[in-house]
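ping. complex inputs:
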Amino acid sequence: MTTFIKQRSAIALGSRIGVIAIPLVVFIVCVLFVPRFLSVDNLQNVLRVGSILLIAACGQAAILIVGGIDFSMGSAVALLSVVTVILAPEHGVALAFACGMCVAVLAGLCNGLLIAYLKLPAFLVTLGMLMVLHGLASLLSGGMPLDAAPSPSFLWLGSGHVAGIPVPIVLAVLAVLSLHFLLRYTVAGRGWFLVGTNFNAAVNAGLPARRSVLLAYVVAGLFCALAGAILTSRVGSGQPNLYPDLAFATIAVCAIGGIPLNGGRGSAVQVVCGALIIAMLNNAVVLLNLTSAWQQLLMAAVIAAAVLLPQLHTVRRRYTHLFKGNAQ
Amino acid sequence: MKTIFQASGISKHYGTTCALRDANLALKAGQIHALMGENGAGKSTFVKILVGAVRPDGGEIVLAGQPVRFGSVRDALNQGVVPVYQHSTLFNQLTVLENLSAFGLGTARRSWAKRNCLDRQQANEVLRLVGLDVSLDSLVNELSLGERQLLEIARGVGRHCSVLILDEPTAALGAREADRLHETLQVLCAKGTAILYISHKIDDIKRMADAVTILRDGRTVVNAAARDDISAAQIVQHMLGQTFEPQALCVSNRGDVVVEAKDIRLAAGAQPFSLCVHQGEVLGIVGVAGSGALRLGEVLAGAASGHGATLSLSGTTQIINDRQSAMRAGIGYVPSDRHADGLFLGLSALKNASASVLQRFSSWGVLRLREEAGPFDALIAQFNLNPARLDLNASDYSGGNQQKLLFLRNLVLPNLQMLVVLEPTRGVDIGARESIHQALRELACSGIAIVVVSSDLLEVNTLCHELLVVASNRVVGRMTADAQTDAVLSMMAGAC
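pong. complex structure:
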């Protein structure tokens, strides 16, 4: 038994190192083979672009851990941008952003209520929400991008600096730290893991399982709102087609980081690693002057590799762990 | 009778762990042969080797005089070794006939698939052979658990079957269904099939089996002892490697009413009834599968709706209608299906054990992780949790130890007043069973009310002060522990 435990912890350590090793490998490959990759400006650019995806992916991770999924993020940030740009001239930039972000949080709340309390499938609810929010954004904007008055305050979130560091990067770091804290050190985060692992067992253990699911969607709405606000400020306009595949990109981030789609597992570190890999590859593709078609194919290959690698690992261990039952 | 299936000197290592050292078994045609052993004795590995799911490291298997090496389960099936597993492997959405044909499809050659399927007449014959009286077109999920078990056997014997291997066939069955299964086995036996019967239930073994083989620590310690040459006590002794005194009942120090349940209906439109549970009492609830006994336990735990039932705690007028409020009121709950409804299999044992008391080591919603394991140190030793640590994944523990984890979760409830336990020892080995029983007795002695719902009459008899018999969704009898087993049995069966 003790040997078995040692093996198990060695494997756990191995996969933990693996999570950090893969972005490192991608980084080294990029440095070696992509011209102009290794410069302060470019790396800062990688992080700034990646930070929006990273913040949204923090929300997606919380939902995946609780056993759900959210397809509506792309439309939520679009509606957020349109609402913000419409309100900004009359009510001031700060209030406009606050209202825009409230819209995204409300969308998360609606998702959560429908999924947790009406027991509707997350897949359909958030797919419906994707369409509803996109429809609203198109209606409000008349289907055309609305340009914001270019004031420094409007652009600060996306292009400003705090102590020399771009604001999006600062916010991304804060988002990751808060996700880590939530998952590791709070009752709410522990509840997500328990509910995501076995909903019935969570109910029988006397946990507020439905509230836990609702909370995950609301928290995801918050992360999504933050990402959307940065994106809106960065592009300086309200667009119904701002980032249509944001939800899929965040799911890809989580998958590449190794967070399973069936709930109960995941960590902030995994989200960071997944986002870094995607951000670096996107940047490399641009620097190498490849078309967006190549970019998509490359991304598909990376996702396939990320999903398949742990599987190979499992196949190899399958026989040694057969008698232990459900070895993870 | 000739030996038809023989395994000798089987060994199997997983990494550096040795699951089997020297396992032997000799099955004779027309004989029911029991294979016994505690969880972890190597039984499941042995069976997996016998049915071709796992390859042994050493030893040899001889089938009908020929040495065989099974490459896969299908390989073993084709040579007439048919396994029937504890957990159903039927296709619930398909009909009985389609399920019966399922094994045939595995060997079908593309477009000739139809030819290998059973026709209706053959299928009916097979059903008659196992004593199953259902329509070929009924869906499997309309069948009772007992009927499904018989169907699973029918599927196995519908083809060439010389050795039938049954893993805990009666674990999920009520007494009547188990009897029916046993009759079927006798019939198959008479036709010359060799049957390997794996079970924890010593009663079943003593009644059914012609010979007994016992595994301990990966070795065969008793090889094909004739039933009459070995007593129940000896079986237990060989399985554990030690002797074992049955514990006397703790004297009932029945106190005040803890929980009062009124207007319970176990099904919509059923007769309502009320009952009280007292401090320090162990209340047993028995009933065959489908009688409503399990449902009554769930209602008392707040886990299922009692169709208008009200559950109130003594001294207060607090009404409990879900698990969350029940837990806050101090009602602990161990569900009957620990994998589906109890455990968080992907998470650590500690997270499993502390799931109900997150408030206890948190303030303002922030966990104090260092305090999480504290309350469990003493309990781990008291329960003989093995391995005696909580940092492993819950799925790494054996069935009995997983059950202990569920008990740990409830024992640390700060204001535990009543513990509702469904099927406390289903699929659990004797050692764990004894420590679970002991823990329940101690809890009762310390003044906590215990409700035990079990299909195991022996368990209820040794554990409970009072017995409720449930049949057809109502309480048909109430008696003290020393009641005659026969009387209870007839009551359980009578109202069905």
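Residues 106-113, 243-247 of chain B have pLDDT under 50 and may be disordered.
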